[in-house]
Design a protein that fits this description.
Elements (H helix, E strand, L loop, with lengths): L1 E7 L1 H5 L3 H10 L3 E8 L3 H7 L9 H8 L4 E8 L2 H9 L12 H5 L8 E3 L3 H12 L1
Antiparallel strand pairs: 1-3, 1-4, 2-3
C-alpha cells in the first residue's frame, strides 16, 4: 500500500464538489485513511509550498490557498501517487483531459480544484505537515 495526499482546493469546496471529487477517488479503489476540512493558515501553506517560494506565482498561490476552506485527504492504495496523478490530470485545466478532475472541474490556474502529491517523498512530507 502507498499513501498520498490530495487537497480539494477552495474553488471546488465553494462550488460544492467535495462529494463528487471524493467519490471519484473511492470509485478508483482509494481508501480514505484521514480526511478533514480546514481553514488553512498562511504559515502552513507557506511550509507546504516552500519549494515554490522563489517563483513569481508564490504569493498568488498562498493567497488563493488561504482564501477558503480546504479538504485534506490522506489516501491509500497500491500505486497511490501515480494513480491519483492520473485521476487529477494536467496541472492546467485547459490542458487536462476530459474525465480527469481538473479537466472536468478546474477553472484556471491556480483554481484547478485539487492538489495531488507528485511523488512518494512529497506525499510523506505533505501528510506529515497536514496530519501529524
Amino acid at each position: 500500500m502507498e499513501d498520498t495526499l490530495v487537497i480539494i482546493k477552495p474553488d471546488a469546496v465553494a462550488r460544492g464538489l467535495v462529494g463528487q471529487i471524493t467519490g471519484r477517488f473511492e470509485a478508483a479503489g482509494f481508501e480514505i485513511a484521514r480526511m478533514r476540512m480546514q481553514e488553512p493558515d498562511e504559515a502552513l501553506m507557506r511550509r507546504f509550498y516552500a519549494e515554490h517560494e522563489a517563483k513569481w506565482h508564490f504569493g498568488r498561490l498562498i493567497a488563493y490557498m488561504t482564501s477558503g476552506p480546504l479538504c485534506f485527504m490522506h489516501l491509500r492504495r497500491e500505486g497511490a501517487v501515480e494513480r491519483a496523478r492520473m485521476l487529477v490530470g494536467a496541472t492546467d485545466p485547459a490542458e487536462a483531459s476530459p474525465g480527469t478532475i481538473r479537466g472536468d472541474f478546474g477553472l484556471d490556474l491556480p483554481r484547478n480544484s485539487v492538489h495531488a502529491s507528485d511523488c512518494a517523498e512529497a506525499a510523506a512530507r505533505e501528510i506529515g505537515l497536514v496530519f501529524d
